[in-house]
Design a protein that fits this description.
Strands 1, 2, 3, 4 and 5 form a five-stranded mixed sheet that branches. The chain has three helices and five strands, in the order ββββαααβ. The longest helix is centred in the C-terminal third of the chain and has 14 residues, at 60-73. It is 32% helix and 30% strand. The two termini are 24 Å apart. By secondary structure, the chain is an alpha+beta fold. The chain has a single domain (3-81), classed as 2-Layer Sandwich (Double Stranded RNA Binding Domain). The protein is globular, with a radius of gyration of 12 Å. β2 (10-13) and β3 (18-25) form a beta hairpin.
Length: 87
């Protein structure tokens, strides 16, 4: 089954400086953290909750596609998406 994102919620993580979101592989929750550097692919972003969540929202489709690709390569239940993943 493919990874889906039926729940659009996301949250700011001030400790790891990124945005957390959840995908689902069938009934299994798959946790993601996309870090600030990955969100800065198109330019520098302030490390604030509002800034990072706004960039996430604008890039949501790309981020979901990257998450699917990362998950398809090795399916654990937790991932950190970095700038290297944002090709």
């Amino acid at each position: 089954m493919s990874l889906s994102f039926p729940n659009p919620s996301r949250s700011f993580d001030d400790f790891d400086v990124g945005v957390r979101f959840v995908g689902y592989d069938a009934m299994i929750s798959v946790l993601f953290l996309i870090d600030k550097t990955a969100l800065e692919k198109n330019g520098v972003v302030a490390a604030t909750e509002l800034s990072l969540l706004a960039v996430f929202d604008v890039s949501r489709n790309l981020i979901y596609n990257v998450a699917r690709e990362v998950h398809s390569q090795a399916p654990p239940t937790s991932y950190r998406i970095t700038v290297e993943d944002m090709k």
